[in-house]
Design goal:
Number of strands: 8
CATH architecture: Alpha-Beta Barrel
Order of helices and strands: EHEHEHEHHEHHEHHEHEH
Bound molecules: 1,3-dihydroxyacetonephosphate
Oligomer: single chain
Number of domains: 1
CATH topology: TIM Barrel
Radius of gyration: 17 Å
Largest sheet: 8 strands, parallel, barrel
Strand content: 15-25%
Distance between the termini: 13 Å
Number of helices: 11
Helix content: 40-55%
Length: 251
């Protein structure tokens, strides 16, 4: 049985005060007793503030939003997996569609980031998903399949062992337009099936999160689907009450 997971991707939002307040409000709202595994991913500069606010509360985990493929050295502006782990992160988002679209991360680069995350002892949350044009051209499975295959070809299916995949259709991110439970379930089942071609145990253990305009009023219907193991939440993770409601809908 897979424990559900809800991860909050704050993207490039917040401040020191915002981070302090949001973490306090989540704890006061009972996030630690949520049955789902909860992860928060603030921007890099605020990881320390979030970690201090959590104060060793092991029920809520920290994650980075990105990492570089190198361990250290002359890579100005980049952050390594080892640095994230050193700041208390257990997870890292890899290959978010915003990074693929805005920062030129292709499938090969994303696979290398999965490798770097695992080498640093972090659990990658690998994001996959199609654009609206790709969906309308009936290419969803081809696109998502290629995104998964790039990692399997580079690293082997073992790279997915104990990790997390997030299906985030690009057309649903920040648009208020959510995939229906049925649409999301179809792609989640496809993802699990693709992995199970290589390793049935890895496929049945992996958590597959849905992301894209998840809100308190649509979370329960999405999470009720058999292959949807929780959510990767953007906008609604910035409001304590909304994020708590989504966490409770998952667990
Ligand atoms: P929204 O929940 O704001 O649509 O963002 C989803 C997302 O990109 C999470 O990584």
């Amino acid at each position: 049985m897979r424990q559900p997971m809800v991860a909050g991707n704050w993207k490039m939002n917040g401040s020191r005060d915002f981070t302090h307040t949001l973490v306090s409000d989540l704890l006061a709202g009972g996030v630690s007793s949520c049955a789902a595994k909860v992860v928060i991913c603030p921007p890099f500069p605020y990881l320390g503030v979030a970690s201090d606010g959590l104060d060793g509360n092991g029920e809520v985990a920290l994650g980075g939003q990105n990492l570089d493929v190198h361990e250290s050295g002359a890579y100005t502006g980049e952050v390594s997996g080892a640095m994230l782990a050193d700041m208390g992160c257990e997870y890292v988002i890899v290959g978010h569609s915003e990074r693929r679209a805005l920062y030129g991360e292709d499938n090969a680069r994303v696979a290398d980031k999965v490798r770097a995350a695992r080498a640093a002892g972090l659990v990658p949350i690998l994001c996959v998903g199609e654009t609206l044009a790709e969906r309308e051209a009936d290419r969803t499975e081809a696109v998502v399949g290629a995104q998964l295959d790039a990692v399997i070809e580079a690293l082997g299916v073992e790279a997915f062992d104990g990790t997390v995949v997030a299906y985030e259709p690009v057309w649903a991110i920040g648009t208020g337009r959510t995939a229906s439970g049925e649409q999301a379930q179809a792609v989640h089942a496809f993802i699990r099936g693709r992995l199970s071609r290589h390793d049935g145990e890895v496929a049945s253990a992996i958590r597959i999160l849905y992301g894209g305009s998840v809100k308190p009023d649509n979370a329960a219907a999405l999470f009720a689907e058999p292959d949807i193991d929780g959510g990767l939440i953007g906008g609604a993770s910035l409001k304590a009450a909304d994020f708590l409601a989504i966490c409770n809908a998952a667990g």
